[in-house]
């Protein structure tokens, strides 16, 4: 009510009332900040990643790698042999295809290779959405659907794409579901994930299923390489840079693979003397030894679809960072009245981990990291504080943290916030992101150190490249900085100068096509990795 003519309250009394109200609000805010401070201090302490802790993580990662290479189930890391004994060299020529099946969409791609001089002459791809009834249908229905769309894509072949006379088309199959691989071109499905419930596929060779479906379609094509997306990323990067020895995906989820000497894989010795190298898929998301976890991590893990599993992934990947921050802020709001009485209610609803884990990796990638990373209209599900929001807030360099204020208003629904409160949000985000980035760096350093100890200076003593893919790495500068800082601390300034981290955007698709070429039945010579 204004103190205009006719008001029953004198103007001075109204102004005094307003001042008392503002003073009371400031006092309440100050009290809330004081109550939130111990939670932030404890979070910093428990998320700290000093050098001794990073050394333990790197050493434990290397030890677990050795255990997994010795025998299945001996460690947390599965250390799955890819049976990729031939990496692309650049000499490959001809037309090759790739199929990338990892969720509710699949992608088909073709590439024309021109050898050392021309490399990739041309490439093109299409993405296809899989209907829900197919995802819940039978094995034949799924693979017939894929083969039919692949056949339609092949029918459009023309222009720069030419199949050499007398050859059958060959395809690299990127299959991002749990499989027990038995050779470069065969793998038994363990179980469906990501919302698929296809009857009768578990226990079958998925390559045989696809080959049979292509035959039913009358499509003259065979699978010559079965890979997962991380292996495809390494192959694609190695094609352009032969110093690439490791590939890491840091996006919605995470994984790493590397080139291993067959001599150091005891669990393959039953195959007889094997020389050369192969790519090992570490499945490092399952690692957990020595990780600095908080009550918020444990609660989130308990609420997930796979409690007690994938702890490293839940600590470092984009799927979970925003949810951990939300849980910290929810506790602050509950115990300190941060942002007022309504804030705790607005942050009470968890990010729907049980549902989102059933969504395809490609779909989540669109939600989280659709090329317009800052497009909040795509991300603005009320009260869901997600990793892109953390990134935008951490990059807010304005004096009043105006971007943070906008995100609080538009995403969480907090209309008013003080500068001190906005700083708390940034500090909490930094704690979680810094921990994630530095642990990722420790994991990479662990892989490199394991390779170095087995090679007598042939890894860290020369230029060695690490290929990186994934929206989290690509779009989060602070995360990248924390990761590389940890690698330098662990490897030392001299050795770290030889390590080159290269961003390889969307390399898994073309990598699968390149592996199809490198492992082609028409290859006159299969060069060793």
Commentary on this structure:
- By secondary structure, the protein is α/β, with parallel strands linked by helices.
- Helices cover 48% and strands 16% of the residues.
- It has 20 helices and 13 strands.
- A six-stranded mixed sheet has the order 1-11-10-9-12-13, sandwiched between helices. The protein has a five-stranded mixed sheet with strand order 4-3-2-5-8.
- A hairpin with a 2-residue loop joins β6 and β7 (186-189).
- α1 (11-47) runs parallel beside α17.
- The longest helix has 37 residues, at 11-47.
- Mean pLDDT is 84; it is low at 1-28, 352-383 and 525-529.
Short description:
Helices cover 48% and strands 16% of the residues.
What is the count of DSSP helices, taking H or I runs of 4+ residues? 20
Shape: globular
What percent of residues adopt helix (DSSP H or I)? 40-55%
Proportion of strand residues? 15-25%
- Going by helix content, strand content and strand pairing, the class is alpha/beta
Give me the count of strands.
Answer: 13
Strand order of the largest sheet: 1-11-10-9-12-13
Radius of gyration from the CA trace?
A: 26 Å
Taking pLDDT < 50 over at least 5 consecutive residues as the criterion, the unreliable ranges are 1-28, 352-383, 525-529
Tell me the span between the first and last alpha carbons.
79 Å
What's the assembly state of these chains? single chain
The biggest beta sheet is recorded as:
6 strands, mixed
Mean pLDDT: 84
List its traits.
529 residues; alpha/beta; 5-stranded mixed sheet; 13 strands; 48% helix; globular; disordered N terminus
């Amino acid at each position: 009510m204004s103190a205009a003519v006719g008001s029953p309250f004198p103007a001075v009394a109204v102004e005094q009332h307003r001042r008392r109200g503002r003073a009371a609000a400031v006092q309440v805010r100050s009290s809330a900040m004081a109550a939130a401070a111990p939670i932030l201090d404890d979070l910093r302490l428990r998320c700290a990643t000093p050098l001794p802790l990073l050394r333990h993580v790197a050493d434990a990662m290397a030890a677990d790698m050795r255990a997994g290479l010795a025998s299945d189930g001996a460690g947390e890391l599965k250390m799955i042999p890819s049976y990729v004994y031939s990496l692309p060299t650049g000499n490959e020529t001809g037309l090759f295809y790739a199929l990338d099946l990892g969720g509710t969409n699949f992608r088909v791609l073709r590439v024309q290779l021109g050898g050392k001089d021309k490399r990739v002459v041309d490439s093109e791809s299409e993405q296809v959405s899989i209907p829900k009834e197919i995802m819940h249908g039978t094995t034949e229905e799924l693979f017939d659907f894929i083969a039919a769309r692949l056949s339609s894509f092949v029918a459009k072949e023309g222009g720069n794409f030419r199949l050499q006379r007398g050859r059958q088309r060959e395809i690299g199959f990127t299959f991002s579901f749990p499989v027990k691989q038995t050779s470069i071109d065969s793998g038994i499905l363990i179980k469906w994930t990501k919302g698929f419930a296809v009857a009768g596929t578990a226990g079958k060779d998925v390559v045989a299923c696809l080959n049979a479906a292509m035959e039913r379609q009358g499509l003259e094509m065979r699978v010559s390489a079965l890979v997962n997306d991380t292996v495809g990323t390494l192959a694609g990067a190695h094609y352009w840079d032969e110093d690439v020895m490791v590939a890491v995906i840091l996006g919605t989820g995470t994984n790493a693979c590397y080139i291993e000497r067959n001599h150091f894989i005891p669990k393959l010795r039953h195959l007889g003397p094997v020389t050369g190298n192969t790519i090992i898929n570490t499945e490092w998301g399952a690692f957990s030894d020595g990780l600095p976890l908080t009550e918020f991590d444990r609660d989130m893990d308990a609420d997930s679809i796979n409690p007690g599993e994938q702890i490293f992934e839940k600590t470092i990947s984009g799927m979970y960072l925003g949810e951990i921050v939300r849980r910290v802020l929810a506790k602050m709001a509950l115990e300190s009245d941060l942002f007022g009485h309504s804030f705790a209610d607005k942050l009470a609803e968890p990010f729907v981990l049980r549902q989102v884990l059933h969504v395809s990796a490609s779909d989540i990638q669109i939600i989280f990291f659709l090329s317009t990373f800052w497009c909040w209209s795509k991300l603005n599900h009320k009260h869901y504080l997600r990793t892109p929001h953390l990134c935008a807030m951490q990059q807010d360099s304005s004096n009043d943290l105006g971007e943070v204020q906008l995100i609080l208003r538009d995403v969480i629904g907090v209309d008013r916030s003080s500068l001190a409160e906005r700083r708390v949000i940034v500090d909490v985000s930094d704690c979680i992101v810094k921990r994630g980035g530095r642990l990722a760096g420790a994991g990479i350093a662990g892989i490199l150190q394991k390779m170095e100890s087995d090679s007598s200076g042939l890894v860290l003593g020369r230029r060695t490249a690490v290929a990186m893919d994934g929206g989290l790495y690509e779009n989060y500068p602070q995360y990248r900085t924390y990761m590389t800082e940890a690698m330098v601390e662990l490897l030392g300034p001299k050795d770290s100068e030889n390590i080159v981290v290269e961003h390889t955007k969307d390399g898994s698709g073309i990598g699968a096509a390149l592996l199809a070429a490198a492992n082609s039945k028409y290859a006159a010579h299969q060069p060793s990795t």
